[in-house]
Protein: CTLH domain-containing protein
Organism: Setaria italica
Amino acid sequence: MFLSRIVLRDLDSIDSPASMASSKKVVTRDEWERKLRDVKIRKEDMNRLVMNFLVTEGFVDAADKFRIESGTQPEIDLATITDRMEVKKAVQSGNVQEAIEKINDLNPTILDTNPQLYFHLQQQKLIELIRAGKISEALEFAQEELAPRGEENQTFLEEIEKTVALLVFEDVKNCPYGELLDVSQRLKTASEVNAAILTSQSHEKDPKLPSLLKMLLWTQNQLDEKVAYPRIDDFATAELKDPSI
């Protein structure tokens, strides 16, 4: 990112009409690699970036091994990662009540201070009842647990109506809201729970690494308009691709 800013700054001169009319400036691999070597990034910063990703995404074993090998200390107790992943797994498996109980064991204030998250968990519980074909139980739950919340919040009411609409269709594939029964809905709720727990632990809810990769992609797109250079097409290997001349 720092290198790209330098290159963008150095290439400002080609924005003139005369230079824009000419071919793009070409930066050779040797010249590009020399610029890369000039950018000084501390290993400690890179290690913290990796640790941030492992902790946020819940790779507790990998985080512990990385802590030992690199000497990088995580910002939170690694034991809490296991607890957080158990909650996330419970939601992803459709065991919403178990997830709620585990959240309260972790920190009872999470749901007390986040009514939207609690509603979405209750909504997910209703979805699971409908998925299991427990129609009477689903209707009773919707009326006793969710309806009062819908009376207080218009957005919640709309979500309740969409969820209850699943009961009207024998073939949920033809229901406009059938996506609520997709696994993606569980994952969405689990992700919201994961973010809430991380926030309660004073930790970022999103890892920094994906954001940096998006920034790198954006910067390369900006450079493409002005210069031909060895760019990275495969982020998995980070291999430089020679510019086409």
Summary: The beta strands are 25-26, 227-228, 231-232, 240-241. DSSP finds 13 helices and four strands in the chain.
